[in-house]
Amino acid sequence: MVEGLFEIPDEPAGSTDPARAREGGSLSDADHVAAPLAVRMRPRTLDELAGQAQLRAPGSPLRQLIEGDQSLSLLLWGPPGTGKTTIASIVSRQTDRRFVEVSAVSAGVKEVRAAIDSARATLVRTGKETVLFVDEVHRFSKAQQDALLPGVENRWVTLVAATTENPFFSVISPLLSRSLLLRLESLTDDDVRAVLERALEDERGLGGRLAIEDEALDHLVRLAGGDARRSLTYLEAAAGAADSMGSEAITLEAAETAVDQAAVRYDRQGDQHYDVISAFIKSVRGSDADAALHYLARMLEAGEDPRFIARRLMILASEDIGLADPTALTTAVAAAQTVQLIGLPEAQLTLAQATIALAVAPKSNAVTNAIFAAIADVKAGKIGQVPPHLRDAHYGGAKKLGHGVEYKYAHDEPFGIAEQQYAPDAIGDAAYYQPTTYGNEAAVKDRWERIRAIIRGRAER
Does pTM surpass 0.85? Predict the structure, then answer.
């Protein structure tokens, strides 16, 4: 029995307590027939966990924690729907600990301290340990995170904290250093498919009462976007639509009706995946913002991972725009960070903005050509020795070897540019970077030609 705020022998429906304890090391809600499908199908053992092979491997820290019944706090970092809450449940269930959940959205320092005090009292009174699960721990202030430290340091609780944001920026260092950081990866389409197929047959799920068409299953997998919880929510809605239609199988029509989204003919693992992303990139490269937006919309509607799209835009910013518009890469990186922080559906606006900005920007592949030309020379064996005056001279005897001698400090020279050899003899007068006259690179071209002439002793006197 949990005292005070956490006493829940008969917790009333609609309780708004920010922290809830569940006895017996299980999530009791998962056993209720009216619970959502995603809750009922929550894995009960580590072996049932979808994906995350690196965490489930024999001898992994998580498996040692669970099977060895150790008291060790965890910090779970990963996208939504990858199993963070599930892992907390498994830890409590398989180690027979109490489970107390605190919401970082609604709980304050008072509730955090009360949860830890209750756990300590239970440990002293009964010897039973407590798993304290804090979801979205990045939403906690520094003071709230500080309140967790005594419980973690004294092992009054086994803390399992979950976050979708980089914990090195969002979690205080003392808490980070006292926890085992586990990185969860987005589920693959095969992982999501396995989750749905198990839910269709398992007695906790649909119990085999409905079949599903291949197209409908593919559609649900696409829309899930690597999120197991979302996939089960969609499946439950699709099953309800099938029931209302009097059908014994979940059809594509039922799936579309359930999620209110048309199925886009797009295979994220097949030719359509590569064809559409190829057309998208080539449209941006070709400066056709309208066509690029069309392909962007197709990918978003088909459930493409928005982070994949953002990564391709970052590549394009250097490959096809470069110094013709130096802000292009900044725009692409900012878009990728925003996508990571806010997710869909809002991130579609960010991706659209970045797509248009990069499509209308002046284009240059001079940066691409420059690095490829340099790599080609290196692969061809044009390596050469570093010129003696450029070698490290910060150790005894370096000058006796001629290292650093006659080096000209650029800041002491006119215009801050020194006439001296920088490249090894092997590549001679190689001119890898050849700026275009497009956009900002026209100014870069003029400056770079004058700089190159000074460095190589060809400037007019």
Answer: no
Q: What does 236-266 look like in DSSP terms, one character per residue? A: HHHHHHHHHTT-SEE-HHHHHHHHT-PPP--
3-state class (DSSP) for residue 457: coil
What pLDDT digit, counting tens, does each position of 27-50 carry?
444 455 568 888 888 888 888 888
Q: How far apart are CA 417 and CA 433, in angstroms?
A: 18
Distances (CA, A) of 19 to 104, 167, 244, 396: 10, 22, 37, 64
Phi first, then psi, for residue 212 (nearest 5°) are -145, 135
The CATH number that domain 4-183 falls under is 3.40.50.300
Q: Which residues lie closer than 8 Å to 220 by C-beta, 6 or more apart?
A: 196, 231, 234, 235, 238, 255, 259
Per the listing, tokens 């995170």 go with 145
Q: Could you tell me where the DSSP H helices lie in 189-251?
A: 189-201, 214-224, 228-244
pLDDT value for 178: 87
The vertex-411 CA angle with 410 and 417, nearest 5°, equals 45
Classify domain 271-360 by CATH number: 1.20.272.10
Query: Residues of the chain whose pLDDT is less than 70?
Result: 1-34, 68-71, 260-273, 396, 398, 459-461
Strands 158-163 and 74-77: parallel
pLDDT at 371: 92
CATH top class, domain 366-455: mainly alpha
Residue pair 118/84 in contact by the 8 Å Cβ criterion: no
Please provide the DSSP assignment of 355-399 as one string.
HHHHHHS----HHHHHHHHHHHHHHTT---PPPGGGS---STTTG
Residue where the block lists tokens 């990963």? 78
Q: Where are the domains of the chain?
A: 4-183, 189-259, 271-360, 366-455
Q: What is the pLDDT of residue 9?
A: 32
